[in-house]
Amino acid sequence: MARLYSDPLCPVACALDVIGEKWTLLILRDLTRNPSRRFQDLLDSLHGCAPNTLSARLSSLEEAGLIERRQYEQHPPRMEYVLTDKGREVRPVLKALKAWGQTLQAQKA
Amino acid sequence: MARLYSDPLCPVACALDVIGEKWTLLILRDLTRNPSRRFQDLLDSLHGCAPNTLSARLSSLEEAGLIERRQYEQHPPRMEYVLTDKGREVRPVLKALKAWGQTLQAQKA
């Protein structure tokens, strides 16, 4: 996986190397909310994300061990995506983002 | 400020609209660690960040009210950047990223 930042000593940069690219945290948000998601489910949920971008982000997440692909249909073969235990370790980041985002939304209301 | 995601109802997307662009969270990391930072300090710390990108990110953060510019020298006029109270509200996100990043680093060790 290409590194976003060349700062291997900094834990924040190391985390963002894995989940800092556009769309990645929203994919993890969806897989946190739903036990499993199909490609089209994710595409429908991620307004404006191109299919090839979604594929690239899913491959990176799979390579990083944060998600897994499971076959849910044989003919034709269809896949769904689920969080791994390692992927679930990201939930505190999503929780903190959600809390701060709610503060922003309240300030705009 | 151009929106990263068109998902105004989702607090995670709203948060990432403000702090989701590349380099932004690392700038906030630096300003959280140090009470104030000059442009060159930030540039030196952010390996690989171009000056014009740093300027753009600092303007966006200023526009969002997360940081402020303060003049620390009159002749010639020189500026430094500091977190605002609103900027300090992002610390739980940085804290969660740091904790998860440390987990990643430990797994690699």
UniProtKB/TrEMBL annotation, chains A, B:
InterPro entries from the UniProt entry: HTH_HxlR, WH-like_DNA-bd_sf, WH_DNA-bd_sf
Annotated ranges, domain HTH hxlR-type: 10-109
Keywords, comma-separated and alphabetical: DNA-binding, Transcription, Transcription regulation
PROSITE patterns, A to Z: HTH_HXLR
GO molecular function, one term: DNA binding
Record has Transcription as a keyword: yes
Source domain of life: Bacteria
Pfam families, alphabetized: HxlR
Protein name: Helix-turn-helix transcriptional regulator
Organism this protein belongs to: Scleromatobacter humisilvae
